[in-house]
Amino acid sequence: MLIKNARLVLENGEETLRDILVSKGKIAEISKEIGIEDAIKKIFKTDTHLVRMDYLDLEGRYLIPGVVDPHVHMRDPGLTHKESATTGSMACAKGGVTTFLDMPNTIPATITEEILDDKRDIFKNKTYVDYGFHFGAAGDNNSQEIKNVKNTASTKVFLNISTGKMMVENDEILNEIFSSSEIVSVHAEEEMVKKAISLSKKNKNRLYLCHLSLVEEVEELKKAKEEGMKVYGEVTPHHLFLNTNNRDENEQNSKLLIMKPELKRDKDNEKLWDALNSGIIDTVGTDHAPHLLSEKMEKTTFGIPGVEHSLEIMLKGIKEGKISMKRLIEVMSKNPAEIFNIKNKGKIKVGYDADFVEIDMNQERVIKREEVISKCGWSPYEGIKTGGTVLTTIVRGEIVYKNGNFKNKIGREVEFNG
Questions:
Q1: CA nearest 392: which of 401, 404, 380?
Q2: All residues at 6 or more sequence positions from 247 whose CB lies less than 8 Å from its CB, including other chains
Q3: Is this structure's pTM higher than 0.90?
Q4: What residues act catalytically?
């Protein structure tokens, strides 16, 4: 593949037009000018008429690294009436997410090596984008399983709420789980954030705080960072853009806009934006947790979809002056890949996987329910105007989504470094 006239954002924030040459799924060259004949000769070492090369001229539109969503629930296995590996990956591709990390609270929960292997078989050859798995901690102590499993993103610990055996309340078991894990991702709200940080400090491992939503939680993260701890914070787009005012607008929203952690006040929105821009919060993760519309309307059901619109909603943040394109790339691509040590992801850099998103910042659109790809069939952002539009999503040099069309179910499991 040869990509021409792509607008790239450099690490210093400057923007520049570059051509990018892709070979065997990797970024082979980034230059001011790469001719197609020269590109073919470099890659194939043969005459140009003997080969075919994909050619994209972006005409100055943005090309950013593929989004890495570190926090999704694709509902596979056990809850595939809500979402599946395939439909969830389609939502990712449409939204510019080229890699996702799936959470373990499925049916059965991913808390043994055997169940993880079964889950790997389920996902294999079923996705349009790349993926990895978090492993689950169990309340009855599966620390030995945690030590045995290979190639996982983290150990996910639920300190506040979960289903089945996944909420861990016993302090002795919690300590064993933390001591058995290189990095722990936690669902921790309010006072449990402080407890998670204390456990991480005691066991000298890394800690990833999922979906922070309160001013007080951000303050605890800030203190831990100031102490030199390897603690990272995540925020969701819905906790940045939505609050209790949106939930209370009408009866439908009062049922749809329910999740854990729940929406907070507008002053919490502002504090979360400040923390995201200052570096206190490190990543944006969607906590994509879809339920059918009928399920949401029938009774109180926690969880909302997110991957399909996360990038385009965050582009709205750029239009409103809440975040720069440089910082957006850091928190949605670079940082998630680095925190979880995902091999060759998160940057437009020679040698890295050719995962790209083409964005048109001049093409805004209103999010509509009838256009939703996710199996759940609705979005918490319905009626909101995006800050731009995802035109093309590329995974390892192959187009998987372009202008409303899906191609090439090529997704595969990522590798984690060391």
A1: 401
A2: 253, 254, 257, 258, 263
A3: yes
A4: 287
